[in-house]
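DATA SHEET
Item: assembly model
Revision: 1
Owner: S.N.
Input lines:
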Amino acid sequence: MKKWQCVVCGWVYDEEEGCPEEGLAPGTAWADVPDDFICPDCGVGKDDFEMVEI
Amino acid sequence: MAQANSPVVVIGTGLAGYNLVKEFRKHDSETPVLMITADAGCNYSKPMLSTGFTKNKSASDLSMADAGKMADQLNVTIRTNTRVTNIDASAHTVFVGEEAIEYSKLVLAWGAEPVAVRIEGNAGEHIFAINDLQDYANFRAELEGKKRVLIMGAGLIGSEYANDLSNGGFEVDVVAPSNQILPGLLPEKAASAVKNGLEGLGVKFHLGLLVTRACESDNGVVVELSNGEHIETDIIVSAIGLRPRLDLAVKAGLHVNQGVCVNRMLQTSDADIYALGDCAEVDGHVLLYVMPLMTSARALAKTLAGEPTDVNYGAMPVAIKTPVVPVVVSPPAQEGEWDVEANGMDVKALCRDDDGALLGYALTGACVADKLALNKELPAILK
């Protein structure tokens, strides 16, 4: 399981936790997150996330 | 008309300019686009400028791509270090000094600038306002070997810098005229929680006061406050406010208020000139944040590609990057009744109308976890 961070605002998507509020169950891999997903904090698209080690 | 073959011209290559063009290229890969920027045109995220020490990022680390790379990626021409000096709307022309550049459509994405401050004394060159990547680079260079920073202003940027510079090991003083931090954004109890958190990092607050004078001394700068108190520091950060840039728009005869006035199509009072981001006042709203900017970029990209699209603003909560006490706030648009639950650093303040509908909230500490659920209850800003 990996973590992905929004490069614009720093919001983190943790695959392990998913994001149930946005309809992403825990364990949802980043590759399976829909292409039209937008950062819940700042609204940028999926392209603007990068994998991070935290 | 000659301008039919002219490019779409975008002034500014910040988040607004680049994200607009990125979205535009999803609909239209061919129309020529010329971007003009007064700086070097690096693609960076402005909100990250107040997290540099916490994330250990220099100015060059924050630059994700230079102008050359962006031009290739977006299939556009980018003129860097070039300042537009005039706009002739009736001739569909922008001027760079004597040089005339015709446009088919013009987009103003030139952002906001720090409110200028004039402080008496001879320490002017030690006062920094950090509004772009170059300012940030200069500030970081100046901080080399220094230990103390005084921040003027306790709003969003001032508070974020207080946290970030403390994390960077600096001794931080904050001077602000308000009696609480984050005035206008947070209710008093939530603001106290954040203030306590920052004080725990060693930040010293001097609230209800102004800097009246700053003078060079043998070992730094001596700052005099309105109560006569003196503080020794090395560098001053001015974070007293940000306002939309208006000069060129005024000169061009466009309607302006607090920002460049645009309708829901992001169109200014001239039909072929649009504006978005920090310079724009969208149907009366000036929101200097990324989320409204992104929403605008998506709508305007469609409009420019031939599909006229109104922008809709949903709720626009703002995350304040004070990691010692995280904050997210959605200021209510109208008066309501606040209900505040506070437990140390964790504050949950909800503002509701007479019928119990949620108008806004402020969450700190562990309570920020409630934000996504609460967001669903919030009213839209522009439906």
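QC remark: The radius of gyration of chain B is 22 Å.
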